[in-house]
Amino acid sequence: MARDLLLGEDEVQARVTALAAHVARRIDDDTVCVCLLTGGLWFAADLMRALARAGRNPRFDSLWLASYGDAEVSSGRVRVHAPLQKPVRGAQVLLLDDVLDSGLSLSSAQRMMQDAGASEVLTAVFARKPWPAPRDIEADFVAWEAPARYIIGYGMDAGGRFRGLPGIWAETPDA
Fold it and tell me: Cα angle vertex 157, ends 154, 158, to 5°?
């Protein structure tokens, strides 16, 4: 398989910085930013640093969910591998994830936060892919509108590989 570069590292970082400026106006330092592991880790780390540069220092936690495993399509079920470490009752929560495609993981996490007593649940994703049917959730903050292609890098993987690529590529079948 060949790969087409869609966003280089500098463009990824510029989009995260721009997104942080919008997010910073909507949250405060008591907000709990919750990273959806594993894919959201890269975006969450960069966004937290960008928020600090924008004058915001929210709390941080993570929630390890999985619906894909090593497959390229969702299993249709979300499993919790590791729950939050601290309560969110009464807090504003900002869920952070790498990509919004079907919305299954993000909507499941949103319900979990609401069930845990969060006062408000916002969502931020690096990439939003087009989807053929209405999703149960749409992100409040989106850094990049991705094409309808299988993308890798910046937390997004293919069978557990390529998450660490600093930019974003699309897999392209060899001709």
Answer: 150
Look at the pTM and tell me if it is higher than 0.85.
Answer: yes
| pLDDT computed for residue 172 by the predictor | 75
φ/ψ (deg, to 5) at 155: 100, -20
What's the token pair of residue 47?
């966004």
- Which helix (H) or strand (E) segment holds residue 100: the answer is strand 92-100
Query: 38 preceded by cis ω (within 30°)?
Result: yes
Return the amino acid letter for 36.
L
**Could you tell me if 151 and 125 are in contact, meaning their C-beta atoms sit under 8 angstroms apart?**
no
Amino acid 167 reads G
CA 118, 58, 26, 34 dihedral sign is negative
Residue 170: pLDDT over 60 = yes
**CA nearest neighbour of 108 among 36, 33, 31, 19:** 36
Length of the chain: 175
Q: Domain 21-147 has what CATH class? A: alpha beta
Q: Are 156 and 100 in contact (CB under 8 A)?
A: no
